[in-house]
Design a protein that fits this description.
The complex is a heterodimer of chains A (about 475) and B (about 150). Chain A is an alpha+beta fold and about 475 residues long. In chain A, about 35% of the residues lie in helices and about 25% in strands. Chain A has one domain (about 5-405, about 445-475): tRNA-splicing ligase RtcB. In chain A, helix 5 (about 115-125) runs antiparallel to helix 10, helix 6 (about 140-155) packs across helix 10 and helix 7 runs antiparallel to helix 9. The chains are: A alpha+beta (about 475), B alpha+beta (about 150).
Chain lengths: ~475, ~150
């Protein structure tokens, strides 16, 4: 994008004043270099979101923003139900509640490296990954309904996780207001064999070494110790979420006119929050959030089982689990008044500051962990939510590095075998069922995660806590 | 735009991919709306695996109706995505006929094999992004959209 199209508010904050049908301004948090690197479509999408009914304050894009569907990936927008606000299936996306969780291992790099290949092989064997892989937990319709109602709590009750984990998951592992009856038979069927599976694309399970600590107090509060390793899992609501996204996107696109909504882009398909369709979508979408939370809890359980084969103390306590494709009701201050708003985060992470009531007591002094997935080579970050983030983008931050290259360009630039060999030379073992999938996810296809995270910190969205580099990467 | 595949002299049908930031666009051309749909489906399959490696052992029949032609295209691709996920199949050939707002389609394929197909990605859904299903000139239809992977 051409940065001259923006009004510069600061080195990392750029504004587009409302024009045309925009109801509010658009704000992009990024350095000039990152903005220049972004596709022009990000400009169109962040301004299109500003045209939706009931949007509050501004349409935001995070430093990792890139061309998405309707919303940019890295888009944040809040809607007020009392002002005709909408909920958008396009604004949540197909992979409802896709997210990241990080388990502590309290194992050193040396301990992992001593069994690195065997551990990689075992994780790849026991955590289903890739197209057509099946989970070991088959669900009948009754169990599916229970899972959709209770999320990670369901998984724990069935023995696939620990009760202590729940405090360290957003909304304590269970999205309230889920309506399993709003989830179609097709969506249920698509999930029957997919519980506890990673999926494909950019989803992964990594064993990562904590190589740098930026904020020792917060890191200590989170349990992060330099030289120790963590297990990080990135995946979402699998086929069930994809099907819900597909079905509601269609229904909302077709019914927009009936609801008096002019869609600047059909992919922004939405419905008034206070409509039958809006409420039905919220019920189904929350059920899909629960599916994602249960799925990640099960994969965490599978990782624990593998670690227990190698290490005596393989408990893997959960540090935190956070979603980055959601619409959630949150209270925020707008014009001096605290109001419940429907916050859409599409490829963006919630980033509550210290003392937020939704945080477990142990994390309250430090703010919410914000987990930033990087590429296989560059590494990942843990950030912490800060109080100032509330004013910036309703307590939101980036979610990853963001792609800078299409999948096609990536497969032209790299072969999967070479990517695996190059990473092996750096001490990183990659396990994947698909060499082409690895090529498409090559580290060079992603933006510089350091620049993205530095931008997020400079913009006051979150602060840096720790940086991790992978030792093992299981790719879907 | 990259790979272009000819189906042979008998048919003007062909498909290609076009770039999208994080995902991929699929585009099919054909002499009829149905053929363009068949080619768009082949383009989508090629995102997952090489469709020429897929044996045609089983057939799945699909019938759809939609309020507009372009939504019919998205519905067709999404129906295939559902069938692939639910039946654990990949497809290598398609037959489509379109009459007004109705589509009758047939997908031919087999059970997915990690060894033989080495599927690169799972397709989450067909989107309305860059969606077009039009007759660009007499006898040349174009069916395209971005798919989320």
């Amino acid at each position: 994008m051409d940065a001259s199209r923006f009004e510069k508010l600061s080195e990392t904050s750029w504004k587009i004043e409302p024009f045309g049908a925009m109801r509010v301004p658009a704000i992009v948090y990024a350095t000039k270099d990152l903005i220049t690197e972004m596709d022009d479509k990000v400009f169109d999408q962040v301004t299109n979101v500003a045209k939706l009914p009931g949007i509050v304050r501004a349409s935001y894009a995070m430093p990792d923003a890139h061309w998405g569907y309707g919303f940019p990936i890295g888009g944040v927008a809040a809607f007020d139900a009392d002002q005709g606000g909408v909920v958008s299936a396009g604004g949540v996306g197909f992979d409802v509640s896709c997210g990241v969780r990080t388990h502590l291992t309290h194992l050193t790099r040396e301990q992992i490296v001593s069994v690195q290949q065997e551990l990689a092989d075992a994780l790849f064997a026991d955590v289903p990954a890739g197209v057509g892989s099946e989970g070991k937990i088959g669900l009948d319709d009754t169990e599916t309904t229970a899972m959709l109602s209770d999320g990670a709590m369901w998984a724990v009750e069935r023995g696939y996780g620990r009760a202590a984990d729940l405090d360290h998951i957003e909304e304590k592992g269970r999205a309230n207001g889920a309506d399993p009856a709003a989830v179609s038979d097709h969506a249920r069927k698509r999930q029957r064999r997919e519980m506890g599976t990673l999926g494909s694309g950019n989803h992964y399970l990594e064993v990562q070494e904590i190589v740098e600590i930026f904020d020792p107090d917060v890191a200590a509060g989170y349990g992060l110790v330099e030289g120790e390793c963590v297990v990080t899992i990135h995946c979402g609501s699998r086929g069930l979420g994809h099907q819900i996204g597909t079905e509601f996107l269609r229904e909302m696109a077709i019914s927009a006119e009936r609801h008096g909504i002019v869609l600047p882009d059909r992919e922004l398909a939405c419905a008034p929050i206070k409509s039958e369709l809006g409420q039905r979508y919220l019920g189904a979408m929350r059920a899909a959030i629960n599916c994602a939370l249960a799925n990640r809890e099960i994969i965490g359980h599978l990782a624990r089982q593998v670690f227990a084969k190698f290490f005596e103390h393989g408990e893997l306590p959960l540090m935190f689990d956070v979603s980055h494709n959601t619409c959630k009701v949150e209270e925020h201050e707008v014009d001096g008044e605290v109001r419940p708003l429907f916050i859409h985060r599409k490829g963006a992470t919630r980033a509550f500051g210290p003392a937020h009531p939704s945080l477990p007591k142990a994390l309250q002094p430090f703010g919410q962990p914000v987990l930033i997935g990087g590429s296989m080579g560059a590494g990942s970050y843990v950030l912490a939510g800060i109080a100032a983030s509330e004013r910036q983008a309703f307590s939101s931050a980036c979610h990853g590095a963001g792609r800078r290259m299409s999948r096609h360009a990536a497969t032209r630039a790299w072969s999967g075998r070479k990517v695996i060999d190059d990473l092996r030379a750096q001490g990183i073992i990659v396990k994947s069922p698909s060499l082409r999938g690895v090529a498409e996810e090559a580290p060079g296809a992603y933006k510089d995660v350091h620049a993205v995270v530095d931008s997020a910190e400079a913009a006051g969205l979150a602060k840096k806590v720790a940086f991790m580099k992978p030792l093992i990467c299981v790719k879907g | 735009m990259t790979k272009i595949v000819d189906r042979g002299r008998r048919s003007p049908g062909r498909w290609e991919h076009f770039p999208h930031g994080a995902d991929v666009g699929v585009r099919g051309f054909g002499a009829t709306a149905g053929e363009a749909c068949e080619q768009a489906a082949l383009a989508m399959m090629a995102v997952i695996t090489d469709p020429t490696t897929v044996r045609q052992e089983r057939t799945v029949e699909i019938e759809l109706a939609a309020p507009s032609l372009d939504i019919l295209l998205v519905d067709w691709l999404n129906a295939l995505i559902y069938e692939m996920a639910e039946r654990r199949m990949v497809f290598g050939d398609f037959e489509v006929s379109i009459d007004g707002d109705r589509l009758k389609g047939r997908a031919l394929g087999e059970d997915v094999s990690c060894e033989r197909h080495a599927p690169a990605v799972e397709v989450k859904g067909a989107t309305y992004t860059e969606l077009a299903f039009v007759e660009d000139k007499p006898g040349l239809w174009r069916a395209q959209c971005v798919i989320d992977v």
